Amino acid sequence: MQRTLTAPLAWVGRSATDVAASFGRFGSFSLRVARGGRDLGTWGGLLATQMARLGVQSLPIALFVAAFTGIVLALQASYTFTGAVPLYFVGVLVQKTMILELGPVLTGLALAGRVGANIAAEIGTMKVTEQVDALETLAYDPFAYLAVPRIVAGIIMFPVVVVFADAIGVLGGWITAVSLLDLSTPEFVRGLQLFFKPFDVQFSLIKAASFGLTVTSVGCFFGFGTTGGAEAVGRSTTEAVVAGSMAILVLDAFWAAALLR
Amino acid sequence: MKRRQEVLVGATILGALLLGIGGTLWLKGKHLGTQESQISARFREIGLLAPGNPVKMRGVPIGKVESVELEPNGDAVLVTMSVKEGLHFPRDPVVLVAPKSMFGDWQAEVFPRSAFPQYDYLESPDRHVLPGFTLPDMSRLTVVADQIARNLAVLTDRFGIAFTEETAMNIREAIDNIQEVSSKLTTLVSTQQKTLETVGGNLEQTSRSLGAAASVAERAFAQIDTSVGHGELKNMIGDMRRSAARLDSISAVLVASTRQMKATMGVADTAFRAVAAVAGSVQRGQGTLGQLVRDTVLYSQLVDTNAQLQALIRDIKLNPKRYINVKVF
Fold it and tell me: What is the nearest CA distance from B26 to chain A, expressed in angstroms?
């Protein structure tokens, strides 16, 4: 009876302790990554490979998502603006929405699934098969060797991918507006240029870099935190994707509040 | 393999850089290789104009708004614009800022001042800074329209109060009266028209008479003309000259007489003043005459004395020897 009554309290206490412990572990992980960042000789040579895997190989999925987002945006905008608002505002909506919001966020979410899961699974597998321990035995800093090149590659390549995604999204909206809507290219371009500010692009790139940092850090964190067997690897992968996606949405709100007010 | 990855990554990053920079410039409306110059304009306020808004001339985009700065004393706003180099602005150019559409996009447009002379442009001591004026946006116009609507509502209310059923009946009666007057006027006009026709006939007859009189006059003038030809008029003119000379001399005499009259009048005026003074004294009972006038007893005594003196004189005339006795020796 008493155990039944105290169970919820115990659950709350355990959850709070777990959250605090997770933050503590993430703090410790961050410190070790920062320390590993000084070991340029170890991760410098691995950077190009990680940039290719995380960035270049992620382009198809990111561009696919962006292209269809641009198409849908143009169609929905024309559907919404019927009558009251001039149709060239389709260009305004596509440009603003793609560059400020959907380009970085959807790319981040897509890469959280692809890159975050990939990193967590790879490092988790290395962890459970004691390859990480082997690296340490060989006097390699596993954080400098495994985490730092991935995180740096994420910070560099996410904005690169987002630039392409923004462009393809706007292009998709343009093609849709011209081919499916009663809108000419000059009108669409007029809308694109109407309220454009160079800061829109900066904002998009800042968000993309922070998403790259978050997705790769979370993937590495859950990968290094994997204990047990194959099941644990799967669990770490799932947790990395969920935590990475949530972190992207939280960061999105944070940057909007910090930079757009 | 690693070399290939490095090339791939390098190409991707370079492509992203070119795309990002090129796209930004394109969306900003910049064209590489185009020479631009900067112009400035001064405004009291600029509405929603912001950097990036288009600058136009004759409706054609010629540049962009670069910056919007409040002057240090806060009295005006200085707007800097980049425009295509080599453009020839109209004489006495001014810049008008206005909403481009109803959706918050604004623009600046260069005009000659003569195009819109009614606006109060903000001048600048610097002759390189163009005068500017900002047109009100829709919200301000809405406020004005709202005020007009309120005034109209007040007027309507007052009209409603003034225009009662009784007023309507009065107006209807007035209209009936006007119709009646109108019909009477029509009758009068038709009557007067006949009269006028008669008058017109008389006038025509009169005109004919006048024509005959004119013929007679013409003949008279011809006779005068003949008289002039025989020297009779010359004699008449000579007589008239002589008469005029006589009138002139008479006039001179009259002028002299008038002067004398004026002097006489002055003397008479003085005399009258003296008489008036004496009369005043007499009236007040001053002097002998005054006492005589005022004192009736004295007057009676004087009358008596006078009568006695006259009796005495009569007696002396009758009996001189009684009073005058002359002896020579």
Answer: 8
